[in-house]
Write a structure and sequence with these properties.
Blueprint (H helix, E strand, L loop, with lengths): L1 H29 L1 H17 L3 H14 L8 H19 L8 H4 L1 H16 L7 H24 L3 H24 L17 H19 L6 H19 L4 H16 L5 H22 L2 H8 L6 H14 L10 H4 L26 H38 L2 H20 L9 H20 L12
Helix pairs in contact: 1-2, 2-3, 2-4, 3-4, 3-7, 3-8, 4-7, 6-7, 6-16, 7-18, 8-9, 8-10, 9-10, 9-11, 9-17, 11-12, 11-17, 14-16, 16-17, 16-18, 17-18
Length: 458
């Protein structure tokens, strides 16, 4: 009787999997990105509520696919499930203070809450209060990543998983950009899964940096290291096709930082940097499409300096409070007719644009108070990454030392690119920032007794 009952159950499971597989196969023929995203979404539902770490890894993959560009809300639902998974984990781990960011870093948690509160409070003086409230809520959603990642990353293995998720997801995003013709703009620039070349290029640089890092971690399995190398090659190829000047800035800063924090591997890093720079220069000079060459080698105004000038006028008028979170586009037209030449007013009148500088944007929208709070978050994360490098170096943990240095390079690279971009709600940025205190906690858990601040070999 047990066999009679078991066989129909197994047959039903097999039939269900076959139908699901066939459906995804048909969908892949229509839209490969949507098919991959839905497959990951199903996996996310099954995994997120049982493992915060694996749920975080799948969430990273969904973020790189950017399904919201197809009018779906998969990422929002995934974020909600991830938050529920974190709440459940915290409820089950009551008393384990070392896994709580609030207990480990109460002052920083207060700073984070103050920043979100200030963003929401700015609705009181914003020209568009609803936009300010929506912006404040988006800051709240991204700030929660610090709490989630700190819980999800408390062992070296989990740190490898999350970095691996970044690398493999970036490789997947690069592959989709290269194989799908719809991912190319009218100018011939690769837009990828983000529909915007500069943002896409920045995250490809992050993927490349972390791919090189993961390939150098001996504790990672051979298949994972090979996959990291393949992802790095794909990210490099897709990056060259974006023609992004902001991406080139991120790449240049990443190469410089790689040499700076190379430590005992500095000579090998310098050789790699020279090789990469030479290959990139050769491509842009000799092989890049004319549209990309023109964009990279000309200084024609893209309207960014005009937007910066408008932001400067906002700061002069509202230096302390700003114009309100997310209100740059809503308020920019009010600062157009003032002394100073504006060459590209279509980005202010016809198609109001963002300020294209995350720091100037924070100053214009949230004032000096908001910029200081935002800067405090960045400084805290960078200091945590540096301290993690110190702790791993002091412990003689070569693999995690490499991982911490790679994370530091990736964060600095994305922050450099954001000098030319307006991505204050970028999930990738906030996830990378949130990795730093988690990695520091891992370092401190295995640090030997003695001077934990012993300087690393930079």
């Amino acid at each position: 009787m047990s066999f009679a009952l078991a066989d129909p159950a197994r047959a039903a499971w097999a039939a269900g999997l076959a139908v699901a597989g066939a459906g995804l196969g048909i969908l892949a023929g229509i839209d490969a990105r949507l098919a991959v995203g839905l497959a990951l979404g199903v996996a996310f539902v099954l995994i997120a509520l049982t493992s915060v770490t694996l749920g975080l890894c799948l969430f990273i993959a969904l973020e790189f696919l950017q399904l919201s560009g197809l009018g779906l809300s998969v990422e929002k639902m995934a974020g909600g499930l991830l938050a529920l998974s974190w709440l459940g984990a915290m409820a089950l781990r009551r008393g384990e203070a070392e896994r709580s960011l609030i207990s480990a870093h109460p002052a920083f948690t207060g700073l984070l809450a103050f920043f979100v509160g200030w963003s929401l409070l700015s609705a009181l003086w914003a020209a568009a209060p609803d936009v300010a409230l929506a912006s404040g809520l988006r800051y709240a959603q991204t700030a929660v990543f610090f709490l989630i990642v700190y819980t999800a990353v408390h062992t070296r293995q989990q740190a490898l998983w999350v970095v691996g998720a970044f690398v493999l997801s970036a490789g997947l995003a690069a592959t989709l950009g290269l194989v799908l013709p719809s991912e190319v703009s009218d100018e011939g620039r690769l837009e990828g899964t983000y529909g915007e070349p500069n943002e896409y290029a920045t995250y490809l640089v992050v993927g490349l940096v972390l791919a090189v890092t993961l390939a150098g971690v001996r504790a990672a399995s051979a298949p994972l290291r090979l996959a990291a190398i393949a992802a790095g090659v794909l990210c490099s190829g897709a990056f060259l096709l974006t023609g992004s000047r902001a991406g080139l800035v991120a790449m240049g800063v990443a190469l410089f930082m790689g040499v700076l924090v190379g430590g005992r591997r500095r000579i090998g890093t310098m050789v790699a940097v020279v090789l990469v720079a030479a290959l990139a220069a050769t491509y842009f000079v000799s092989f890049a499409p004319a549209g990309i060459q023109q964009r990279v080698f000309t200084t024609e105004s893209s309207g960014r300096t005009d937007l910066w000038r408008i932001a400067g006028r906002m700061v002069e008028a509202h230096p302390v409070l700003g114009v309100g979170a997310g209100n740059f586009r809503e308020s920019s037209i009010d600062y157009l007719i003032q002394p100073g030449v504006i060459r590209r007013d279509e980005y202010i009148i016809d198609r109001p644009n963002l300020v294209h500088n995350i720091y100037l944007g924070a100053l214009a929208e949230l004032g000096v108070v908001g910029l200081l709070l935002f800067g405090g978050i960045l400084v805290f994360s960078l200091l945590c990454a540096v301290r993690a490098v110190r702790a791993f170096a002091h412990a003689g943990d070569r693999d995690m030392d490499v991982l911490a240095r790679g994370l530091l390079v990736a964060i600095v690279a994305i922050l450099a690119a954001d000098f030319f971009a307006s991505e204050p709600y970028s999930k990738q940025l906030w996830l990378l920032l949130a990795m730093s205190p988690g990695l520091l906690a891992v370092a401190r858990s295995e640090e030997p007794p003695g001077d934990g601040d012993a300087a690393p070999s930079w």
